[in-house]
Specification:
700 residues; alpha+beta; eight-stranded mixed β-barrel; five-stranded antiparallel sheet; rod-shaped; binds ligand C2E; binds magnesium ion
């Protein structure tokens, strides 16, 4: 390039433009040789080639010059010629350019696809002489299309087969969805495609979805769709950004979480309910009571916790089996449900413990009436495994805020009140009382530690003298058990004997008492008491045990003692059930020379005429009569009559609980045979009693 005089750059040396008419044969040849197509021309009359570019010759496997004059069949073989023939004929008939696709197979099966154009060349005079054949190799193009089609097909299959919903959207419009998503939403394909995806989302879920889209986030997130019928569908989206022809399409897999949420809800239900009765369980009670207590603190609302425990449930469970126990629990749960209605929160804590939280009416009267209604409902007879029976329950009540401001305090104190109800005869209701709660608390401690007391040698015997009247000579001594508790100090028998009976601990304790008492006798002899006699209290459980007589006789033998050294104190109740067993037992004991006394006489319902038939040596007039002797005419009359009648029936009498000289004087006047009480001596520990013994005068 050089600059001319104008200073402008000189025109480049382009070849002169060539038009169809001005092109030289060389130019045309150069053009056809350089085109990326295979080009040939044949005579339509002779069907012989008149021209071919190098590419075409190569394609049919012929030399470019040799090809001229050949037919199609000569050049490419009959098979290919026959395949092309119908198209050639069509072109000749229609005198129009036609196009078809042609597959050229190769021996290794990797053939080529060609686009073939047959273009008729009408001469200037309209005579049709020549036809051009243009073939371009489209194999790569076709393969690309095939691949794309397969990809689309694969995606379509995946979308149809997926149980999850799939949606494609682009630029704020849904471009495709699969059938599962349509089923999930309740819409048809046409109702969905072209719409804004946000349209199908719950209003409260849109902000997050918008943010996820805007940031092209690919992390899964929870969302909510809205069904055509308006219901909410909890879902999880897993979005992906796909590049598609230069644009970004967003695809989301939509997982319906309804069932999974239902599972979660079911798991939550199980975690919060008692599986046997379907009532709320302890976890739920704690949670809800917590809320109630919080709320009640602000509103000062009345709130009461009723702790319900089935009486003697363990016995039912042990004797009838766990299935029967379960049946009972279910029945009780139903009855409580029926009584409580929807107002009260009802729960089972486990075992035979139920808790009702009462939310209305703070007055004790209302609560007591409500509690009584529950007790009545529970005490209705029921059928358990075909047996008709009556089972009762005990209820303890604690009120917010007086008896506790926290869930724990309320439950603990309602439990303490329930324990109180149990200790006072069961089948009843008691309100929490702080002082009584302490006693109940102690009872619990006692219950849990009683089993270890023997092993830990924590029991002791105290001894209280019995003296003859009117001379005051020592005739015997009553052994009274004490528990020296490491924390609680000295505990009297009234606080633990009935518990021991309930826990089946009375047999070993009774055995220990007998051994310990008899063990003292030798020392007493040494102190000058020639024929010592120790009175031992019995529990009815001991008395009814099969090996009772043997165990007593064994104990005497072990200590080298005779029957006269021992007196057994029975209660009227033990003798009430007349039967061969009782008679045999009493006879065996009497035969062995063992004394028999009726303790606390007058508090039971036995009559003297009944006792007359039994080998009883001594009646112990209960201290409640002795206490009232100076004040109550009735007590005086009863005591006097008892002493007289007993004497006439050949029984001795001993008055218990003598505390004053006045009582003793009256008793002497009534000719009581002996007295026992603080006036003579308090119960003493073994060593104190030894000291006392040295000062005593003896009956014999
Ligand atoms: P109990 O057999 O009627 O014993 C008499 C109770 O009256 C004793 O109470 C005694 O300490 C008390 N007492 C004695 N003199 C007086 C008095 O002048 N005034 C008053 N107010 N009380 C007096 P304790 O030791 O508390 O025993 C209570 C009950 O426990 C006994 O009543 C007896 O039924 C039972 N018990 C005691 N030891 C045993 C035992 O080893 N086995 C069994 N199964 N029961 C026992
Ligand atoms: Mg006694
Ligand atoms: Mg007594």
């Amino acid at each position: 390039m050089s600059a001319d005089s104008s200073g402008l750059p000189a025109k480049p040396d382009y070849p002169e433009p060539v038009t169809a008419s001005s092109a030289t044969p060389e130019q045309l040849r150069a053009l056809t040789e350089n085109l990326p197509v295979s080009l040939a021309c044949f005579n339509v009359k002779t069907l012989r080639f008149v021209y071919s570019n190098a590419r075409f010759a190569r394609l049919v496997g012929q030399d470019q010059t040799a090809l001229i004059g050949m037919t199609f069949g000569d050049a490419a073989g009959e098979e290919i010629a026959n395949a092309a023939l119908p198209f050639v004929n069509m072109m000749l008939e229609q005198r129009q350019a036609i196009k078809f696709e042609y597959y050229l197979p190769r021996e290794d099966h990797s053939g080529f696809w060609f686009d073939v154009h047959l273009v008729p060349d009408m001469g200037a005079d309209g005579e049709f002489l020549l036809c051009y054949v243009l073939m371009s190799n489209v194999t790569a193009h076709r393969e690309a299309i095939k691949e794309a089609r397969e990809a689309v097909e694969r995606l379509r299959k995946f979308m149809a087969a997926s149980t999850e919903g799939v949606v494609f959207h682009e630029g704020g419009k849904i471009v495709d969805v699969n059938p599962p998503l349509l089923r999930m939403l309740g819409y048809t394909y046409d109702e969905v495609v072209g719409q804004d995806p946000l349209k199908f989302m719950a209003v409260d879920a849109r902000t997050e979805a918008l943010a996820a889209m805007a940031l092209a986030r690919e992390t899964a997130y929870d969302s909510v769709l809205v069904h055509k019928n308006g219901s909410r569908i909890p879902v999880q989206f897993t979005p992906r950004n796909l590049q598609w022809d230069g644009t970004t399409i967003r695809m989301s897999i939509v997982r319906d979480m309804t069932e999974r949420m239902a599972d979660a809800a079911r798991i939550h239900f199980l975690a919060m309910h008692d599986s046997l009765t379907g009532l709320a369980n302890r976890a739920q009670l704690n949670e809800r009571l917590e809320l109630l207590v919080d709320g009640a603190g602000e509103t000062q609302a009345a709130l009461a916790v009723l702790f319900i425990d089935i009486d003697h449930f363990k016995r039912i469970n042990d004797s009838l089996g766990h299935a029967a126990g379960d049946e009972l629990l279910v029945t009780f749960a139903e009855r409580l449900k029926a009584e409580c209605g929807d107002d009260a929160l009802l729960s089972r804590l486990g075992g035979d413990e139920f808790v009702v939280v009462h939310r209305q009416g703070g007055s004790r009267d209302i609560l007591a009436a409500f509690g009584e209604r529950l007790l009545d409902a529970l005490a209705r007879p029921l059928n358990i495994e075909g047996r008709r029976m009556t089972v009762t329950a005990s209820i303890g009540v604690a009120q917010f805020p007086d008896d506790g401001r926290s869930v724990m305090a309320l439950l603990k104190n309602a439990d303490a009140a329930m324990y109180l109800a149990k200790s006072q005869g069961r089948a009843t209701l008691r309100f929490f009382d702080p002082s009584l709660a302490r006693a109940a608390d102690q009872a619990l401690t006692i219950e849990s530690q009683l089993g270890d007391a023997i092993r830990n040698a924590e029991f002791e015997l105290f001894y209280q003298p019995q003296v003859s009247e009117p001379d005051g000579a020592l005739i015997g001594v009553e052994a009274l058990i004490r528990w020296r508790h490491p924390d609680l100090g000295l505990i009297g028998p009234t606080q633990f004997i009935h518990i021991a009976e309930g826990l089946q601990l009375i047999a070993p304790i009774g055995q220990w008492v007998l051994d310990e008492a008899l063990g003292q006798v030798k020392a007493w002899k040494a102190a000058g008491w020639r024929e010592p006699r120790v009175a031992v209290n019995l529990s009815s459980v001991q008395f009814r045990a099969a090996n009772f007589v043997e165990s007593v006789l064994d104990a005497l033998k072990r200590h080298n003692l005779v029957g006269a050294n021992l007196e057994l104190e029975l209660t009227e109740r033990m003798l009430m059930h007349e039967g061969d067993d009782t008679t045999t037992t009493l006879a065996a004991l009497t035969t062995a020379g063992i004394g028999l006394a009726i303790d606390d006489f007058g508090t039971g319902y036995s009559s003297l005429s009944h006792l007359r038939t039994l080998p009883i040596d001594r009646l112990k007039i209960d201290q409640s009569f002795v206490r009232e002797l100076t004040d109550s005419r009735d007590c005086y009359a009863i005591t006097e009559a008892t002493i007289r009648l007993a004497s006439s029936l050949g029984m001795l009498t001993i008055a218990e609980g003598v505390e004053t000289e006045a009582q003793r004087t009256i008793l002497r006047r009534m000719h009581v045979h002996a007295t026992q009480g603080f006036l003579i001596a308090h119960p003493m520990c073994a060593s104190d009693f030894m000291v006392w013994l040295r000062t005593a005068t003896f009956e014999n």
